[in-house]
Design a protein that fits this description.
Strand content: 15-25%
Structural class: alpha/beta
Low-confidence stretches: none
Order of helices and strands: EHEHHEHHEHEEEHEHEHEHEEHHEEH
Strand order of the largest sheet: 2-1-3-12-11-4-5-10-8-9
Mean pLDDT: 95
CATH superfamily of the largest domain: Isopropylmalate Dehydrogenase
Largest sheet: 10 strands, mixed
Bound molecules: nicotinamide-adenine-dinucleotide
Radius of gyration: 20 Å
Number of domains: 2
Length: about 350
């Protein structure tokens, strides 16, 4: 019997609606398996700006540092999306959290549940059996590089794409090690034909590959990878890439799994791990109670597995999701023409179904 300290940071929009169910799933695991999960809430994003003027107040950061794992929702609000001049923005809270907690490796498993083969716009025969694990570098690249500024009276803007050998090595190591537990293939994605930072990326991965002779390594340009992901998703096992390319490719890859609402992620460094759906705050559906909570619930499965090494508990959560989908239940985003209206659930109904299954 163990005790785990969890910080819940719901953030904005549907963040609160979905993390509520991630937390309830942890509570259920606690009841069934005799673990104690204690929960502390932390504000981040637009809600934190409204409350304190700061998208990630020190108090939130301190709570996060003191926790065993963080369950995060999403940040973002249309107010800022449509006002590029806003100096204080919700996303600053997200980037600061990743940087301050040293969360340099973002793991995004893209696994298609067979039941959702028809939910994707890609043909089922292309998709069936797809199982990709992305390693997106999370604390470097053009998102953090300096200088980033306006020049020429605001008429010219620049960002800096920058990587150090050390930053590439530490994420590549995680990707190679993960590949050893899977189908032993790493696809490293860059733009080495054009970008100097990508040439360093490729050179570093090539050097590291020598230490993993049992792992097949291929190097692919980002443009080719974007095309191949849709053309032949089964050809990928582990994908290793930088922050910007990973951001774009993983959203594209979400269509393999049917919806953004299905995809979980883990952000890891050397300390506390953070678990979150890959989707944003979805202002178009926020407050309607129809968001798919499965990405948050599957993020909890990743937390149980990676941060707490509770493999059986993690498998039970995934099993409950699988069974619920097998019984034909869907939220709106993953329903198709064959889903009976009686089986289209809202957020709370889907969350309750999963909890019910876990008790069986
Ligand atoms: P989004 O992921 O919020 O939504 C994209 C589309 O997917 C929308 O149509 C939305 O309704 C749908 N969707 C997303 N999650 C869903 C779920 N769980 N169930 C059902 N449908 C779901 O991306 P966006 O619209 O480009 O961005 C909205 C805001 O979120 C922006 O402010 C953006 O900056 C922010 N954002 C935050 C994060 C994060 O916090 N990690 C990630 C991406 C975007």
């Amino acid at each position: 019997m163990s005790t785990y300290k969890i910080v819940v940071a719901p953030g904005d929009g549907i963040g609160k609606e979905v993390t509520t169910w991630g937390r309830k799933v942890l509570e259920k695991i606690g009841q069934v398996y005799g673990h104690t999960f204690t929960f502390t809430e932390a504000v981040i994003g637009h809600v934190a700006i409204e409350a304190t003027g700061n998208p990630l107040p020190d108090d939130s950061l301190e709570k996060m540092r003191a926790s065993d794992a963080i369950l995060f929702g999403a940040v973002g609000h249309p107010k800022y999306d449509n006002d590029p001049s806003a100096k204080v923005r919700p996303e600053q809270g997200l980037l600061k959290m990743r940087k301050e907690l040293g969360l340099y490796a973002n793991l995004r498993p893209i696994k298609l549940f067979d039941e959702l083969l028809n939910a994707s716009s890609i043909k089922p025969e292309i998709l069936k059996g797809s199982d990709i694990l992305f390693f997106r570098e999370l604390t470097g690249d053009v998102y953090f590089g300096q200088p980033r500024e306006r020049r020429d009276n605001g008429n010219t803007a620049l960002d800096t794409m920058i990587y150090s050998r050390y930053e590439v090595e530490r994420i590549a190591k995680k990707a190679f090690e993960a590949a050893r537990t899977r189908r032993k293939k790493v696809t490293s994605v860059d733009k080495a034909n054009v970008l100097e930072s990508s040439r360093l990326w490729r050179e570093t991965v090539q050097e590291m590959a020598k230490s993993y002779p049992d792992v097949e390594v291929e190097h692919m340009f980002i443009d080719t990878a974007a095309m191949k992901l849709i053309k032949d998703p089964r050809s990928f096992d582990v994908v290793l890439t930088g922050n910007l390319f990973g951001d774009i490719l993983t959203d594209e890859a979400s269509q393999i799994a049917g919806s953004m609402g299905m995809l979980a992620s883990a952000s890891l460094g050397d300390q506390t791990g953070l678990y979150e759906p890959i989707h944003g705050s979805a202002p178009d559906i926020a407050g309607k109670g129809i968001a798919n909570p499965l990405a948050s619930i599957l993020s909890v499965a990743l937390m149980l597995d990676i941060s707490f090494n509770l493999k059986k508990e993690s498998e039970v959560v995934i099993w409950a999701v699988e069974q619920t989908l097998k019984e034909g239940f869907r939220t709106g985003d993953i329903a198709d023409a064959t889903t009976p209206p009686t089986h289209i659930l809202n957020t709370d109904q889907m969350g309750s179904k999963i909890i019910e299954k876990m008790g069986q």
